[in-house]
Every structure is written in C-alpha cells, then in structure tokens.
Amino acid sequence: MPSQRPYSEIRASDAERERVVAFLREHALLGRLDNEELEERIGQAYAAVTVGDLERLIADLPRPNAPSPRPRRQVQHRHRRGNPSPALVVAGVMLLFITGIPFVAVGAAFAAIAIVFALSFALGPLILIALIIAAVSRRHRHRPPPPMRWGRVY
User: Fold this and answer.
1) Where are the domains of the chain?
2) pTM above the 0.90 mark?
C-alpha cells in the first residue's frame, strides 16, 4: 500500500513561493519585519524546495483568520407587492388580446391620425391663401399723401 507524504513534504510551486513573498512584504509594511530580515526571508522563500520550508518562513507571523463557512439557510422566495409574478403578467396580456382592447386602441390612434390629415388637406390650402394675402398686403400698403404746402401750386 503506497504511503502518502504529508503536505509539508510536497514540493513547492512557483505560485506558492510568490504568495509567501507577497505575505512577507505585507508584514514588512506593517512593521513586523525589518528590511534585512525581509530580504533574508525572501531569499529563503525563493530557495525553498518543499511547502514545509515555506511554512517555516511565515510560522511566526500572524495570519488572518478565515471565517468558518456558515451553514446556509434555505431562502424562501417571496413576491414583492410591486413586482407581479410572470404568470400574472402573461395572463393579463392574454386577457387584453382576447377582449380586443389593444385593437380598439390601435384603431382609435389611426382614426385620430386620419382626422388630422383630412383637416390638413381641407384647411391647408385656405391657410396658405390667407398667408399669401397677408404677405402681399404688407408690400402694397398705401402711403399717406405728402403734407400740403401752402403756397403756390403749379
């Protein structure tokens, strides 16, 4: 039966070395490591062969405690009053089409547009003639006669 090696004896990857170096730099920024010790540990991290070597480099530094996963509660889906259910929306649309209300509304809109066009064809020429008359009358206004001079008139 093959025996499994403990995790600390497994060879370290480059990504694990980089994570340890980043961890060491964070603690140096916090003031837990001075520059000399940081450089020494970074050198040892890049030279580390196993995961255990990396663990020994950070064993004396505090690690953030990962929160334990909480058991999930089953969430009950409740419909808000402002959001109707999709089935209710589909039923309402179907009811509208069955009763013909959209067709009446579309027919009324077309009727209103037809009335506007009919009025524009009937009244449009009359309004155009009135505008032409107003423009012409401004050009040919009668000027008042010049004031009368008292004196000889030839």
Assistant:
1) 8-58, 103-144
2) no
